[in-house]
Structures are given as structure tokens and as C-alpha cells.
Amino acid sequence: MSDSAPVLAIDGPGGAGKGTISCLMAERLGWHLLDSGALYRLTAYAANKHAVALDDPTPLAELAKALDVSFPIEHGQPLTVLEGENVGQAIRNEQVGEWASRVAAIPEVRTALLQRQRDFRQLPGLVADGRDMGTVVFPGATLKVFLTASAEERARRRHLQLQEAGVDANLSSLLKEIQARDARDTQRSVAPLKPADDAVLLDTTRLSIPEVVEQLTDWLAQRGLAPGA
After folding, report:
1. How far apart, in whole angstroms, are the C-alpha atoms of residue 188 and residue 185?
2. Which one of 21, 94, 134, 221 is CB 3.0 to 4.6 Å from 9, fit for a cystine?
3. pLDDT confidence band for 105 (50 / 70 / 90)
4. Euclidean distance between CA atoms 211 and 224, whole angstroms
5. How far is the CA of 180 from the CAs of 146, 162, 193, 197, 226, in angstroms?
């Protein structure tokens, strides 16, 4: 890890646009990308691949610590590459999600993945997308941004996304799911979802994606970091 590498930490609730904005910022800046939310799924997927029991803390923690994963961007889209294989789709099914929830409950794995996330901090810089990037993982980040949007707008965005994918979904149900997830994330005892004390809050409810990217770019420029720097 390079402690001198700048970090743009982007936190916030689901549906606020973190993934899209993080990818665009990493591409604009020429920096590395960390999708922290994928790491537990990746650990669970790798454990199944290598026949590591999902309830055995020591080998699971060793696996998490040495996880061979990267998030390269191709044609404007981030990939999830594990041991040289693009597993972005494979880790998103319900089975892997269930495995991930079991793995995430193991303290040794959480500790190992904390260090694994910090290992992504490499020159020329890192854009870190998650829920505790600025509060727990990178407390010394160059710029901490907490993206948010109204629950109604986030539900609308998710509904549109599902429609475009040909998936039928109920807007009212999506809103309830988002509100319930917000409650869980903000009230959990470990690394609750909240802005870092020195984070800049950005409400994206009425902002376009290009407007958000420009705002973050401006804030980085104010800190002496221009695109490509």
C-alpha cells in the first residue's frame, strides 16, 4: 500500500449513484477503483471455488487477506476480476449472496478484508466506493463524499434500471425495501452508514450524472488534484 496515494472515498446509501459515479471518476482521473461491496461476495465465491468451509474462520480469513481481485474499467464499465476471471455476473446470484452473508458475520474475515481494502490504495490514486470508506477504511482520504438522494428518487432509479433490464418490479415495494435497508445500515452496531465528520454531503436527487462528476472534479481540483493528475 502507498500511504501517499490520494483517495476519493464515496459513501452513501444504495441507489444514490455511488457505483456509476465511482466508475466515471476513476476513468476520468486514471485512478484505481475499489468496489468494496463486492468483496464479501468475492470471498464467499472464492471459498466455494477452493473448497474452503464457510464456517471455518482461519482459512477464510487467509483467503480474504490474499484475495486476487481487481476492478478494471473497460468501455466505461467496471469489471470484477477474480483470479483472472470476470465474475461480475456470477457473484450476483442469490446463492452467492447467502454465502456472503454467512462470511460477513465472521470477525476474522471482516478484519482481513479491512486490510485487503486498504491494499487497493496505490498510485496514482484510488476511488473507493462503499458505505464506510471515509469513516473506517480510509479515514485519511483526500476527499470524502457522502452521496445521497431521497428514498423516493432512489426507488425510481432502481425501478427504471430493472425495467431497462426487462425485469418487472413494483415501485412501492422497491421504496419499502430501500427504506428498510437504510434503517438496517444506519442502525447496525458495526460501521453504521453515516457521513464522516469531514465528509462533503452531496444530494443527487435533482442532479444529473455529469453534474455530479463535475462537482466532484471541482472539489478535487480545489485540493490540487486535476483529472489525470
Report:
1. 6
2. 134
3. confident
4. 20
5. 19, 19, 13, 24, 38
